[in-house]
Structure formats: C-alpha cells, structure tokens
Amino acid sequence: MTRLTAKLQGAANREAVRAFFVTHVGCTVTECAQALGLGRAAVSRHVSALRAEWSSCAALRKTQDG
C-alpha cells in the first residue's frame, strides 16, 4: 500500500468512525471497532483526532462569542 493509499484509507476510516458515533451515541471504542471491522487502536486514534477537532471548534466558538 502506498502512502497516499494509506492516507486515503485512514481518512475513509475516520469518517466511518465519525458516522458510527453520530448514530450510536454512547457506544464504546470496542463496539465501534467490531462494527466497522477495525482494530481498537485504530478507532482510538480516530476518536482522539475527532475530539481534537471538536475541542478546536469549541475554542473557536468561544472566541467568536466572547
């Protein structure tokens, strides 16, 4: 697998993890991994990246509101 292919697959997996948690609020990383056929470590990395996105959006919103 080339680096570009790996990056594209990783991006697709991140979007799949995002979509899973949007529709399955409260599920665990393990449940997500099993449902998507991904490893727990991969899902954990994606969840960490998604949380970073959300926290940066929240910080931006605070600066705009305040």
Written overview of the protein:
The protein has 66 residues and is mainly alpha-helical. The chain has a single domain (3-65), classed as Arc Repressor Mutant, subunit A (Orthogonal Bundle). Helix content is 83%, strand content 0%. The chain has helices at residues 3-23, 29-36, 40-65. The radius of gyration is 14 Å and the shape is flat. It starts with a helix and ends with a helix. The model has no long low-confidence stretch (mean pLDDT 91). This is Bacterial regulatory protein, arsR family. InterPro entries: WH-like_DNA-bd_sf.
Radius of gyration: 14 Å
Instruction: Fill in the CATH topology.
Output: Arc Repressor Mutant, subunit A
- Could you state the order of secondary-structure elements as H and E? HHH
Low-pLDDT stretches:
none
Number of helical stretches of at least 4 residues: 3
Biggest sheet: strands, sense, closure? none
Helix content: over 70%
CATH class: Mainly Alpha
Strand content: under 5%
Write down the domain tally. 1
By CATH, the architecture is named Orthogonal Bundle
Mean pLDDT: 91
Taken from the alpha-carbon principal axes, the silhouette is flat
What structural category characterises the helix and strand content? mainly alpha
What is the number of strand segments?
0
Distance between the termini: 47 Å
SSE inventory with pairings:
Elements: H1 3-23, H2 29-36, H3 40-65
Protein name: Bacterial regulatory protein, arsR family
Structural key phrases:
66 residues; Arc Repressor Mutant, subunit A; 3 helices; 0% strand
